[in-house]
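Same chain as my last thread, 317 residues:
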Amino acid sequence: MSLLIAKRLAALVATLFATSLVVFLVMAVLPGDPATIILGIGAQEDTLAALRHQLGLDLPLLQQYLRWVGGLLTGDLGTSYTYSRPVSELIGQRVMVSLPLAVFAIVLSTAIAIPCGVLAAARHNGPADIGVSTAAQIGIAIPNFWFAMLLILFFAIRLGWFPAGGFPGWDEGASAALGALVLPAVALALPQAAILTRVTRSAVLEVLGEDHVRTARAKGLTRGAALRRHAVRNALIPVVTIMGLQFSFLLAGTIVIENVFYLPGLGRLLFQAIAQRDLIVVQSLVVLLAGAVVIVNFIVDLAYLAIDPRLRRAVGG
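reply #2:
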């Protein structure tokens, strides 16, 4: 078990190193000069040169990379060119929006998808299965930003139950902050729930057709009992895999929804940093988000061991 965890940790470190190198090289070859963006196209060349020296942009690429990675390892992510504030401070503020939003959305998605997927598998080819499958197909086909606009029109503008956008901050109270995240979380959760529902349905149907379930039924176990005791738990591995991928997406890929609802999250910060050519923010954000994806995958691997005793025996052997 410890050897498996050590291998996963080594893979995590190697992935982060490769990601940091690729991100740095990509940002280095992109056209555009941060100093020109900061000072404007009318700035004098000596002023631009002084700013490049201040930002360390005139150093050799290898030295820039080592300087940046050293800052990542020590927690010093540098200073934003645009905001003139430490990048770690910017990310710390924005993650307090994106992380609760991602958790809210994945909990809501799971609460919808797993019961619906199990119901569809238990009533295979019946009205419930057809209804759930149709709803899931519609949820996959419709973009989440379209859901977001419908939610704003109905629940924010027409009914006035929730704010149409913005984030008051946690200092204003948990109820106000969570209220501002309800509609974005629903807009993110519905398409993800549709995908997870289909995966759950397929996984449960596959397990229901396996020999050990048929044997349990032949010994007198009812279909409902076989579903609860054998099918659902054994079907969780692909479901947990998709949940891990979805959480990574919800944490790192919510640029559109955060812009629709005007939320000051990581996705919106990344979008603004790219538009403003704020290289240090883009580099640090991408590496940290990649690290979050790798860590989530590591947690999913550990969840496999908790779910499936066959994997624990294989690892122990």
